[in-house]
Every structure is written in C-alpha cells, then in structure tokens.
C-alpha cells in the first residue's frame, strides 16, 4: 500500500517520461533514506567468479556483505548499508600485475546487482573503493572495497530479492614508495561462475506487511496506480514523515549515467575529423568526461564523454632560467559534436532549494576557441620534468529542457548563461575576458613513468567556476531566468574533467601487443576516459 | 619502494660505468676471437629496471624486450649478435615522458658488437650498433640512429646499455618544435637480462687472442 504525496499529483505527461525506469524500483543516488523496518539482517555471501586477466581467465572468490532491513513496507525506500565487496584474486593474477611493474594496487569495484520483485526487475550498480594494498609476494590478492549503494523501494507486496551479477574491477596500479608514480590501470571483468549458489542471491527482503497502514495518508491509492504500472521515479511515500520521503521518491538521478565505468564506444558520440574539419599534421582528437559540481544544488552534473579536436602546438624555448630548461607550447582545441563546437547534451537532476527536484538537459557551447598553454620545465640539477597546463575555454551553459517537480517547463530556445562560465585566471593580464580555466600538472622523475595530466596522454584537469546569471529562459511570458539564476548561478563550483589519450592523426598508434592503442582504425580516440570525483 | 630500489640500482650502474671509463683495467684487451656459448643460438632479453631514453627530455619505458640470434665470430670489433626484435613499451605499459606517451618503432636488425674482453671479470665491452628507431609523441616524430655503448657480463647475463651523448643522433624531426632538433643528442640507458631462448640459460661471450 502506498500513500500519495500531499502535493498535487504529477501530470501524466511527466509520468510517461519515467517509463524507462523499472516499474517498481527506485534507485536513488543522492538523497539519504531511512529504513523504518525494525530489524536488520546481516548478509554475507561467498560467490565463485571467473575473472578475465591479461594471462587468461582465472577463478576468483567474491564475498559480498551488507546489512538489509528484515522487511520493508511497500514503497518504502531503504539503502543496504555497510556494503563490502571483497575480491580474492589468485596468485596468477598477482603475477599479471607485478609484470606491469606494479607494487601496490587500489581497486574500484562495480558490482551489478539485479533487484527483482514478482515479475519486475531492475539493476543497480554497487560501487566500492579499496584502500591501496601492497601486492603480496606470494599467494592470492585480497581487495576489500566499500562504498555507498543506491537505495531501493519495492513498489508492491512481495519478496524483493538482490542478486550479484557481473563484477568489474578497476585496478589502479602503483608503487609503494612516495616518490614513485602510477604505472597504469587495468579493468578486470568478472562473471559469476555458473555453479554459483543461488545464482548469486545475496538477500531477500519481504515487502509489505502489517507494518504499513499509513493512517495519516491523505488519500488511498487507486488500484490502477498500485498495480505496478511503469512509474519509475514516482514510487510512493513511506508512512510517517511525508515530506522527506517525497524527496527521496523523486530522488535525483544525477549519477545514473554510470560514471565510473568507461562508456562503450556505441554510447559515445563519434570523434573524428571530416570534410568540414580536415586534419592537419598536428591534429589530435580525444574524449573528455567528468563532473561539474553545482554548489547551490549540492550536487554534481556528469558530463558524458565529449569529443575534442586539438591542434597540437610546437614547443618553443621559454624564458631563460638558471635552474630550468623551459619550453612553452600553445595548442588550440574545439569541442566537436554534430559539427558544432559544444558538448553532447547532458542531463542532471538536483534538488532545488532542498525540496523541488529539478531536471535539466544542458550543453556547454563554446563562444571562442579553447586555448591550451603547456609549460614544460626541466630541472637541470636532476632532470626532473614538470609540465603545467592551463586550458582556457569560453563556454556558455545552454539549458535545453527543464523539468521542475516532474513538470516540464518550456525554457525556450535561447536559455543560457549571460556570459561564459568564469574562473579566476592565474594570468588575467594576458588572458582577459570571461572563460573557464582548468589546470593540470604532469611530472616525471628520471627513470620513473610520467604521471598526472599531459595534453597528449590525458589525465585529470580541475578548476573552479562561477556560473553567471541565466538569460532568455522561458516562453509565453513565463520568465524562468530568475528561477535558474537563484537556484544555479553563483561561485565556487568545482569541476573535474578527465581527458583520455589523444590520437595523433598524422602519426596514429594503433593497439598492438607492442603498443598501447591511441587510435581506432578509423582514427578516433582509442581511449574513452572514466570520470573521477 | 621497489621502484626506488630499482632507480638506485640504475644510478649505481651508471656510476660504475663511468668509473669503468675513467679507469679501464689493464686486463681489458681487444680480442679477435669471440666465442659465444651456445653458438649459434636464439636469445631473448627483458629489461631489468626501467629503460631511460633521453631526447632533451627523459622518457621512461617500464617494459622493453629484445630478441635475436648470437654466434661466435672473429675480428675486432666482432659482431656477436643480431637483434631482430627490439620493443620499447608494450600494450598497457607505454613509454612515458612529460610530453606524453612515446611510441618507439625499432628498425632492425641492430647489432651487438664486442670490442674488449676482461677475462678476470668475464665482462665484454662494446656497443649496440646499427641502431635505428622511429619515435613519435603525438604529432612530434623523429628518427634516432647510431650506436649505444654497453657491457655484457657473463656471470649475470646483464647487457647494460649506457650510451654517451653523441653516439646517437636525431634525423628528420617533424612537429617537435625546439624540444627535439637535429642538434639533440639522444641517450639510451638501461639493463637487459639476456637468456638463451630455448633453455633460459645465461649465454656467455669470451674474447681471446690466439
């Protein structure tokens, strides 16, 4: 049984938009939820997996432990807690890692969890991260990953089951010493072994008992509404405090674009030079993806992998310095999406003013070229080299669609920030005007691999941005500028973007046993980077 | 930790080589008969510690492998081995620099040339000759040619390459700006463990003057 929110019912139009979400399950990302069930069941499942490593397929043992409520009310969201995923990889896998010159490893796990109730199903991704652990000299490697997982609400009565499925393990390899650097990373895909007990069943949570009976419910749900008709984020309230539960049911789906996992090539826009954009002999392309925090919304927008076309500059001698040999390089770049200098559209959902869910579809549009200044400094005493890179991009934020509280609002075609997103420029005299500044540093100690951000090989760029006021938002006399400005615009928004390895069109490096791939056969970037927080 | 140790080893090795140059033991003599055991035989070599290539900026390869054939020979200098495969970096472990990842494509064969032999230590001094490799980092491309000095130690099977500035030269630099020009003097330093491909045993080189 469910309670209907006291707020006005959402229009059917809004409801229809949510059908892509599973019928009865809400996977909530950001808003904490509380389980009202009295008891807790502690679950620990040990499951056999088969993992694909560079040396081949190897058996692995995966233990998943979590606390679930003993039971939950229909429509009551709860979050499995104390979730720990422990992966034990055999010694052969350790050899694969030490062969890559790794001395320690940090793991990020992505466990696909099937959630089912009656005939309805949904999928959640349970993410975890481990502390760095030293690779053992002998024997198996045990990785213990912990993390928050999405909350779940059973829409109707019946057992809600959680089953472990595919597991992906992102291994960041490194050496144990402080002066050493990251020798790379590796994603290991693992499948549940065919003989896994209970086909990976982790837990069963009975839903719907005598606990429910929300006497305070303002209205009784009609049979049609509670029959399991698709209504993704419209899960019902739990009994009790109505308002916070209403927040959770319409929880933001900010993180639903599966960040943390490299996107499939089919899921990213093409990134190649064409007749309108013929390459030169210094042309590069790369994908970039990441997060942009919106401070006022207390949330983050995920920017999906976006194509950037780059003209690599030629290094010139920098200013004389008694301690360093310096080279400066200026490169230029443009976003490239359907022949436009912009990102693909991306969606973000936030809780505006802490209670109204706002879902926006946006693009970042360039108003001028992106400029990339790299300064390489070689310290003459020990040949330690450092490259500092500043990316300056005039970008306006263009809002394409907006939904507030589930109701679509017509923002019109010209809804955007008044000016570019702006950052404090470290060199304002030479770089006036409004633009975003992202910074990255690459470093190399002689004899060790280079680390950090480098234009050619990519890495993480970060910056802080002020979002200007919005203009041109609304139609039919409805002015949405102030709503957006009040809820989004402001300073102190942190941005972190991860650029992938570039593909040099005139000197392409294709994947082979000898070479790390840089280009696909049709000269697109081989690497699709993974967003980082 | 492991890496720090390796790095120290590399430095120590370089220092030892420098010492060797400064004071060549009197027993190191040019030889005319070079006895390779086994001969002829296929060999392979894997880096021990990181390989450092320098072309103004240093580049680090954490993986490097070589393979070829070796055979006894006569004459001085003596060509005791041909390197037919020479890889720098591998899938998953590219060579890196602050410019970005560096891709090196070796044009083989390269030669292992023996010059002097010290009977008391079992160390052969010589060089890797006929070096030619195309190097790319993004749009920057250039070719390195020349030779690289080194030693081979029978007791350890370590081929230690420690080229000196001027042995290798840059030709045809394209889109590298001021970082790599024809005036650049590349270097190639690093250790390789050599084994007989069929047995895994350490091969030996002995020089003599009958």
TrEMBL record, chain A:
Residues 239-253, 263-278 have a biased composition (Basic and acidic residues). Keywords: Signal. The keyword Signal applies. Residues 1-37 form the signal peptide. Residues 206-278 are annotated as: Disordered. It comes from the Bacteria. Residues 49-196 form the DUF6801 domain. The keyword Signal applies. InterPro entries: DUF6801. Residues 213-232 have a biased composition (Low complexity). This is DUF6801 domain-containing protein. It comes from Streptomyces hyderabadensis.
